[in-house]
Amino acid sequence: MSRSFASDNNAGAHPEVLAAVARANTGHVRAYGDDPYTAAAARRFRDELGDQAEVFFVFGGTGANVTGLQALLRSHEAIICSEFSHIHVDECGAVEKFVGSKLLTVRPPDGKLTPALVATRMRGIGDQHHVQPRVVSITQSTEYGTVYTAAEVRALAEYAHGRGMYLHVDGARIANAAAALDLPLRAFLTDAGVDVLSFGGTKNGILGGEAVVFLNPALGAEARFIRKQAMQLPSKMRFVAAQFDALLADGLWLRSARHANTMARRLADGVGRVPGVTVTQPVEANAVFAVLPREAIAPLQEEFFFYEWDPDRPEVRWMASFDTTTEDVDAFIEAVSRVVAGR
Fold it and tell me: What count of other Cβ atoms lies within 10 Å of the Cβ of residue 191?
């Protein structure tokens, strides 16, 4: 099967990550994170995000979001998020079930929340009949492939903190955002006022595992209990941690993300020249959104699988990965041109 453009989840694991897992598979170490691999990976995160960062490794992205958000909320409190956010659309109600909090959604045209959009859901404050907003949750990069600037993140953090709220970042593709911004992680996370981060690795070459990072460590005081109760505590944590150690050790995370972003830009430039295809969103990370003739979608999916994003338009999403090649991209551009022209 040719490489797909459906999701960066479809890519395999990076060889350097697999090698790190193999190296960790030697002898016995203490379980549940009390091991040198976990300690080393946690130091990598603190090098990137500051000495105050508290790191908790988990199995997956949904588990990371649930664990991080549960540490911030009581069940009568609510999360303000994008209508397109992963916690709202693609996590099967996990936050509502396990955290017990209501999601208050807004519809940003480019996937990005603003203080003005958040303000539209700030209703019923102090009224016992209404849920109370407590967390603003954003996705970086967004589900539309757009990227918050450091100033935009800071504005949201200041708005939230000024109202006794917290800012949570779903960073499933945080590496792609860092590559797009060309900034250190702490510049648009720690220094911008983010409280809790879900740091994604699976979409950037990890075999399996994510990290919950409390940038405000006081908020993570009970996270170890929450992680265990949420069934997100790996017993053989060394194998999750070793992957992150490899990813963060010499910039592999950033090189891989830059490559994926570059491939997405190449794809957007190529399909954007095809008559009948319109790229609908700025290509800032590793996602390309486009509208094309409806009758061209199914034939293209037979050659290179991808998902429809909004069938009513019809809008599709194409994702590049750390292992996408220029040959993959050019072959797909040729297929788009051929199928759209021959419809």
Answer: 18
Secondary structure of 149-180 as H, E, C letters: CHHHHHHHHHHHHCCCCEEEEEECCHHHHHHH
Mean pLDDT, the chain, integer: 96
- The count of other CB atoms within 10 Å of the CB of residue 287 is 29
**Residue from 137, 146, 188, 190 nearest 165 by CA:** 137
Do the domain assignments include residue 319? yes
Q: Is pLDDT above 70 for 234? A: yes
Structure tokens at 138: 């954003």
Residue-level pLDDT at 2: 61
Instruction: Tell me what pLDDT residue 272 has.
Output: 96
133, 194: one domain? yes
Query: What type of residue is 83?
Result: E
Residues 287 and 153 placed together within one structural domain of the fold: no
Q: What beta strand segments (E) does 42-131 contain?
A: 54-58, 77-82, 102-106
Quick check: 200 and 244 in contact, CB under 8 A?
Answer: no
Report if residue 1 sits inside a domain: no
Q: What is the CATH number of the domain that holds 66?
A: 3.40.640.10
Cβ-based neighbours of 304, under 8 Å, separated by 6 or more? 2, 3, 4, 5, 331, 332, 335
> Model's pTM, two decimal places?
0.96
Query: Does 70 fall in a domain?
Result: yes
Structural domain of residue 286, as residue ranges?
Answer: 252-341
> What type of residue is 199?
F
Amino acid at 285: A
Pairing between β-strand 287-291 and β-strand 315-319 as defined by DSSP bridges:
antiparallel
Residues 310 and 177 in one domain: no
Distances (CA, A) of 270 to 200, 266, 329: 29, 6, 9
Nearest to 136 by CA among 93, 81, 83: 81
The pLDDT of residue 267:
98
Q: What is the mean pLDDT of residues 225-237?
A: 97
Q: Are residues 220 and 239 in the same domain?
A: yes
Peptide bond into 7 cis (omega under 30): no
Domain boundary among 249, 273, 302: 249
Residue 231 lies in a domain: yes
In tens, the pLDDT along 132-167 reads 999 999 999 999 999 999 999 999 999 999 999 999
